[in-house]
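User: Okay, second chain of the day. Same drill as before: sequence in, structure tokens out.
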Amino acid sequence: MKKTIIILWLVAAASCIFAAGLTFDPFTLYTQKEALKTTPHTYEAWIKLPKDFAPRGGIIAGNYGITAAINFEISSGGAPRLYIDGTRKNSGVGLNADIQFREVNAASGRWTHVAVILNEKEGRADCYINGKLAQTLKEASLNTSVGPISDFTERPPLLPLVIGSDRRIGSPMYFKGAIRSVAEFADVRTPLEIKQDMYDLDTKDKDLLFYYSFKYNQENDVIEDLAGNYPLYHEPNPYVI
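Assistant: Same drill. Structure tokens below.
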């Protein structure tokens, strides 16, 4: 009997943890105040997106709207996506990469851990769902034509990132579900590190750029960056009239 009670308590505790999360609308902006100083290569988030969302799941973290976009999002069909402005290797010519994992559907209606890794040195992008490799891409849309990812180099963003939206007028791509946490790293995470990050992310990791946890309701104007680098502010959205 005692063992049964303990198991039920653990299930209830886990349910409470995963029931929480932050939802979004066009009228509130959750924004960093300064641009990232270092280019991310690993993007991770716990999300819950309903199966019947339309037409796109929305932005997890992004700044699209003016210049030097760096968007981590869920596109149509539940496909995890990176849309990043950068340059063509060895030329400096401007290039945008549209990397979409069409074989993956992250819109399950349940809490799902999504991790996307852009490894330019190896010319590949990997998508992990709940700690398991779901799809690898070696080509992507580069300036509207398909090309090898090895031709692309990221560049640091010029504008601060927004969580749950980006900087386009009207904020049409705000996230249509809930986000429990978001983290981005400067390094290429290993498969083992991604599994560890799901439940025990090391806030002292030297490559961690920022980490926000939304397990609890946020009543203050400033949301702590658990990495200690980029506090997150919520304010009326200036991009919505």
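The chain has two helices and 18 strands.

User: Thanks, on to the next one.
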